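Fig. S4 source data, part A: sequence.
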Amino acid sequence: MSVTTATSTAGSPTLQQAYAECRRLATRHYENFPIASLLLPRSVRPQVFAVYAFCRHTDDIGDEAPGDRLKQLDEWEDDLRRCYGGAPCHHYLAALQDTIEKHSLPIDPFLKLIEANRMDQGSVRFHTRADLLYYCDHSANPVGRIVLRLFGLTDEERDRLSDAVCTGLQLANFCQDVGVDLASDRIYIPTEEMHRFGYDEVQLRARAVNGAFLELMNHQVGRARQHLAAGWQLGDQVSGRLKYELRAITLGGFAILDAIEGQGFDVFSRRPRLSTARRASLIASALLPRSRPPG
């Protein structure tokens, strides 16, 4: 049974059951979707879980599904389209359809997330920074825009700030997971930047941690920081508990980059991660007034 149909064959769930499945998935993968945190209003959490379930399942098809993943992504897109005037088969999409209808969510961000997973099939390489940012515009930025719309926010300025934060978070994750991604034949460091620092794919595959690699990673971390800083004011452009949630997420991105720098930019020896205590401190920091980003 494919990943796509794994939970769509046990009969039609009630809407409450569909949302419950989304919640179970989200709470199992908390690290990967920090926006589903206790800082969010209780009233919107089910919809956030439904969005997360879509994102997580899309990634699972693109990363783990046996067989023809492109075909399964096409089938997943077909089922997504049934959320708009039809009856989707998958349980996660039953909850998502309700979320879409309640908040008038457009289909384009969801389609971009599926397209990002199509880009991830086969050997993944990006020649230029612009190529990588185009990928981020599909793999990360749509999530932020969807969340803003769950709160009724649709203006261009907040979209721009959200895109900066989401791109920064995605780039931070790429820095964090260089070794993990390499094992899947995915390299999210622009080729031209590797060459600029005297590094190449042969050295990367050998996991060579030399001066060129450390300088290259310093540069990658710096670019991620720039994006996070460019979107920092998003927290001032929203109100209520969303303000603190966005601050916590952005601070989390900065904290990952600090962790990478703290181990000398050597992301091969061990994967940089945040302790439970550090995560708790970020939530506390998010509640404090702050006019400037860290660093």
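Fig. S4 source data, part B ends here. The chain has 14 helices and no strands.
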